[in-house]
Write a structure and sequence with these properties.
α1 runs parallel beside α4 (103-116), α4 (103-116) packs parallel to α6 and α5 packs parallel to α8 (208-219). The chain is elongated, with a radius of gyration of 23 Å. It folds into 2 domains: 5-224, Glutaredoxin (3-Layer(aba) Sandwich); 239-346, 3-Layer(aba) Sandwich (Glutaredoxin). By secondary structure, the protein is α/β, with parallel strands linked by helices. The chain has helices at residues 5-18, 39-53, 69-73, 103-116, 123-129, 149-163, 178-183, 208-219, 223-238, 255-261, 275-290, 306-311, 338-346, and strands at 23-29, 59-65, 81-84, 93-96, 136-142, 167-173, 191-194, 197-203, 248-249, 264-270, 296-301, 319-324, 327-333.
Length: 349
């Protein structure tokens, strides 16, 4: 048994809450691996998939020979290889090697995303990925005992799912696939490689925006134009206009100026990796418009602006810093509905 009773119950509850459409999973394998008897990995993967399929009637499992025609068509060269979503409009999410250890979590999350048909990427990331005009491969090298690797794999899977078939996300277990890992000098994980180009290598968990831009550079003829336009728009938003109806971008460079300029300023401290921050982001944008002339809202990326984050002792996010007449008068911590958030902010007036 791969999953204990408690873990199994948690997964069942997740699947019951999140799975909408059927998900098809195919395992490519063979027990005849010349010079490398990896039957232990194959047996684990079969049992892992069998137990998952028993947790929801929406999960359908199939087996195929890695030396067969479909395996060749899909570029499968490793046993075991698992493909998720092969009959869901062909979402190309692949796992080369057993999805063991921490990687089980990213695998389960991929099932959920494919079933929902939702990558959960930011709107700006989704818009950029519409411009991918060539087939691509993102390989993410991991090890089972790496607690950070699943985040990198989930991001690559999100990008592949959002691309609708243009991009393949391939999770590669580096210890099982040592020959391939050596090709790209994998010494630290997670490591990402795009289109097997060594110049594309990134190490560590990447921020969504940064990595989507990296993918765009390798997959779109219009990448330069798109990213230049984005940079111009960012610079315009960094200008502290007199009466903005949008959240101005504040940073280490202009924070003091913003505090001095606006009589009542609310700064949303956020980060790309923060789920609740993404939830509250649209609320902040809506309030910035509806409260024009009354409250000015700002956005501070805590990862990119460590000096300001340290100065105001930001320990958790989302955290709204409230300033009145040049002085900090309070904080509003956590995501909440628009009406409740506005009530808490107005309490500092």
């Amino acid at each position: 048994m791969v999953f204990d009773d408690k873990t199994k119950q948690q997964i069942v509850e997740k699947f019951d809450a999140e799975l909408k459409n059927d998900v098809y999973i195919k395992l490519f394998s063979t027990d005849l691996i010349s010079g490398n008897n990896n039957s232990e990995y194959i047996d684990f993967t079969k049992e892992f998939l069998k137990e998952l399929s028993e947790m929801s009637g929406k999960i359908h499992l199939d087996f195929d020979d890695m030396y067969g025609g479909e395996a060749k068509e899909r570029g499968v060269t490793v046993s075991p290889t698992v493909i998720i979503g092969y009959d869901n409009g062909w979402y190309p999410v692949q796992y080369f090697g057993a999805p063991a250890g921490y990687e089980a979590g990213s695998f389960i999350e991929a099932i959920s995303m494919i079933s929902r048909g939702d990558s959960a990427l930011d709107v700006s990331s989704r818009e950029k990925l519409k411009n991918i005009d060539r087939d691509m491969m993102i390989e993410t090298y991991v090890t089972p005992n790496c607690p950070h690797c699943p985040k990198a794999v989930v991001l690559s899977n999100q990008i592949a799912i959002e691309s609708g078939g243009k991009i393949v996300s391939r999770c590669i277990e580096a210890q099982e696939m040592m020959d391939r890992a050596r090709m790209f000098n994998v010494s630290s994980v997670p490591q990402q490689v795009i289109n097997e180009e060594k110049g594309s290598i990134t190490i560590g968990v990447q921020q969504e925006k940064t990595f989507v831009n990296q993918v765009l550079n390798y997959g779109s003829d219009s990448a330069k134009e798109i990213l230049e336009k984005e940079e111009k728009e960012k610079k315009l938003m960094e200008v502290l206009s007199d009466d903005p109806d949008y959240p101005v971008i504040v940073s280490d460079g202009n924070m003091d100026e913003a505090i001095a300029k606006y009589p009542f300023l609310v700064v949303d401290c956020w980060a790309e990796w923060c789920g609740p921050c993404k939830m509250i982001g649209p609320v902040i944008a809506k309030l910035a418009s509806s409260q024009k002339g009354n409250i000015v809202f700002g956005k501070l990326d805590v990862d990119s602006n460590p000096n300001t984050s340290g100065k105001f002792n930001i320990r958790s996010i989302p955290n709204l810093l409230v300033f009145k007449d040049g002085n900090k008068v309070g904080d509003v911590v956590g995501a909440m509905p628009e009406a409740m958030l506005l009530e808490k902010i107005n309490a500092f007036k």
